[in-house]
Design goal:
globular; about 170 residues; 12 strands; four-stranded mixed beta sheet; alpha+beta; about 35% strand
């Protein structure tokens, strides 16, 4: 693995979720290649990416790909002020046309030109890019409290004895 990576691979892209800083560092040290985060959905092509050769902001997914519009929306559909969390919503030519609807036995088309709401929560800075901070519905309800599994994972990853974790 290490020899092949060092000799044959220039960069690596990660699109599942932003890598914890210590995991990125260990991977880069072991394999000798830079890891770049990006953000995409099954319903779209790439929306953001960390540009090779550019700054990597731990926890970030990079800046917008050309042709992509990003809006961070609150529940009523209005944009939140810069720096505040909102639901990541996009307009992009790479967005699918719609979903298959079994009840209709055919397509349920998305309205053209409207924001596609991803269900992800995040913040955006034109300089540092997109930071996904959670899921709109990614919570565990325990004893009447809403618990964010990504927040717990982030906390666990800060402990030096934790290599990998998943909170479900």
């Amino acid at each position: 693995g290490e020899k092949l990576c060092r000799e044959s691979i220039d960069i690596a892209l990660v699109g599942t979720a932003p890598l914890p800083a210590q995991l990125r560092q260990r991977f880069q040290e072991r394999y000798g290649i830079t890891v770049h985060d990006n953000y995409a959905l099954s319903e779209s092509l790439f929306l953001t990416t960390q540009t090779p050769g550019g700054a990597i902001h731990d926890g970030g997914s990079g800046t917008l790909v050309p042709g992509v519009e990003l809006g961070l929306l609150n529940d009523d559909g209005s944009e939140v002020p810069e720096g505040e969390e909102g639901e990541v919503s996009v307009k992009t030519p790479g967005l699918m046309m719609g979903y298959y609807d079994a009840a209709l036995q055919g397509p349920n088309l998305l309205p053209a030109g409207e924001w596609f709401r991803t269900g992800d929560i995040g913040t955006y800075s034109p300089v540092k890019g997109l930071f996904i901070t959670g899921r709109k519905k990614d919570v565990i309800i325990s004893g009447g409290e809403n618990v964010s599994s990504p927040e717990i994972e982030d906390c666990l990853y800060k402990h030096p004895a934790v290599l990998e974790c998943a909170v479900i």
